[in-house]
Amino acid sequence: VFYSGERAKSKILKICEAFGANRYPFSEELGRQAQMMTEVSGRLAELKTTISAGLDQRNILLETIGDKFEQWNHKVRKEKAIYHTLNMLSLDVTKK
C-alpha cells in the first residue's frame, strides 16, 4: 500500500498492526526501487521453484503409494487374519 501524508501513514500503520500484517520499507529513489524489485522478483522466482519441486516430489510419492496400496492392503488383511486366528488359540498348558 502506498500513501502520502502522515495522517494516512498513521492510519495504515494502525490497520497493519491490527491485522498483524508485515510492513516493508520502500525507498523513494528510483534506482533503489528498481534494485528492490529485482531482488524481490528473484526471491519470488526461487520460492516458486521450491514450491514446484516440492509439489512434484509429493506427486511422485503419492503415485508410488497409489501403485503399492493394494499390495499393502492385501498384506495387512492377511496378517490381521493370521493374528485373529492365533488369538483364538489357547496356549495355556495348565488348563486341560
From TrEMBL:
Keyword ATP-binding tagged: no
Gene Ontology MF terms: ATPase binding; proton-transporting ATPase activity, rotational mechanism
Record-level GO cellular component terms: proton-transporting V-type ATPase, V0 domain; vacuolar proton-transporting V-type ATPase complex
Organism from which the protein derives: Noccaea caerulescens
Location within or outside the cell: Membrane
Record's function text: Essential component of the vacuolar proton pump (V-ATPase), a multimeric enzyme that catalyzes the translocation of protons across the membranes. Required for assembly and activity of the V-ATPase.
Family stated for the protein in its record: Belongs to the V-ATPase 116 kDa subunit family.
Membrane in keyword set: yes
Membrane topology annotation: Multi-pass membrane protein
The protein, known as: V-type proton ATPase subunit a
